Amino acid sequence: MDALEAYGRDYAPQAAAGVADHAIRSGDRYVGQRDLLRAIAVADAGAEADVQLGVDPGSFYCADQLANLIALAGDSRLAGVLTGFIHVPPDRCTGASAAAAGHLLPRADNLQQCARVIATAVRELSSGTGDAMLVLTGFGPFAGVADNPTAAFVDGADCLDVTVRLASAGLVPGERESLGAVTLHRYAGNGRRLTLASAVLPLAATAAEALTGRYFDTDTTAANFQRVLAEVLTVGRPRAIVSLGVDSGQVLRPARPAFRIETQTRGFHGAHRGRTASDEFQRHPELARLFLRARERGDGPLRYP
Fold first, then answer.
1. CB of 276 closer than 8 Å to CB of 71
2. Among 37, 131, 150, 36, which residue's Cα sits nearest to residue 93?
3. How many domains does the chain have?
4. Is 178 exposed, middle or buried (0-12, 13-18, 19+ CB in 10 A)?
5. How many degrees, rounded to 5, is the angle at CA 68 between CA 63 and CA 72?
6. What pTM was estimated for this model as a whole?
7. What is the pLDDT of residues 57-95, one digit of tens each?
8. Is residue 262 part of a domain?
9. Beta partners for 241?
10. Helix residue ranges, H only, the chain
């Protein structure tokens, strides 16, 4: 068993999610001691955020979404497509509590760091290929998160252009096309073509309902995700599907912001069990392996101490 296969297998989630010591929420202590990636994303002004391999995306929509991504392995239309989930830190635009959290960064820094993280994946997935499509999803607002940075990133053409430029300087922006829930961002250059298909997954019928916690059930959010995939498949078969979610718990933790490439989930959503939930952690290290491959080369958009 290699180091990544062993990573997280001995992680035991905390019995109480709301413990006073926020340094041990969602596997923070485990990751702090054993992280295999040990990478840093640096914003243009020099602000730094850690990039780590997570072992527990919690019990909200992020955990459920990773379980939905894992379940795509049983979909014949998407056999062999790489999937994964990345937690993005909150920033001072995320909500009222985040605005007062001095350890969090401005939105611009967060988005620039996010571009470096996603560019690392794009670089690995599109290198040496003539044509590739990657799907990126983010989440809309929810209680305490009025402005979700993952929605800002996948909805921001400028953010995606920066991402592609960091991944491959030879690719330049082309046309953008809206399919409905999905927007296609096309890039080309040096005989290569890349398409980023981006979509925001709403967590409630309206932003107002999301902010007051009147969320969709897990089956509805899963169906919304499937509709996004159906739109993408009218264009072509993606090489990878990567979902982003904000780690709002970092608002309460006075530490440097951290991105987490999650490696396992049980898929729970609060007190509800989605159809993809499991009592045991479902392992999913494929995206993490891609980032470790980038680390072995030691180049690219991230810094490796």
1. yes
2. 150
3. 1
4. exposed
5. 145
6. 0.95
7. 988 899 999 999 999 999 999 999 999 999 999 999 999
8. yes
9. 83, 135
10. 3-6, 28-34, 61-71, 96-99, 107-126, 149-154, 157-167, 207-211, 218-233, 286-297
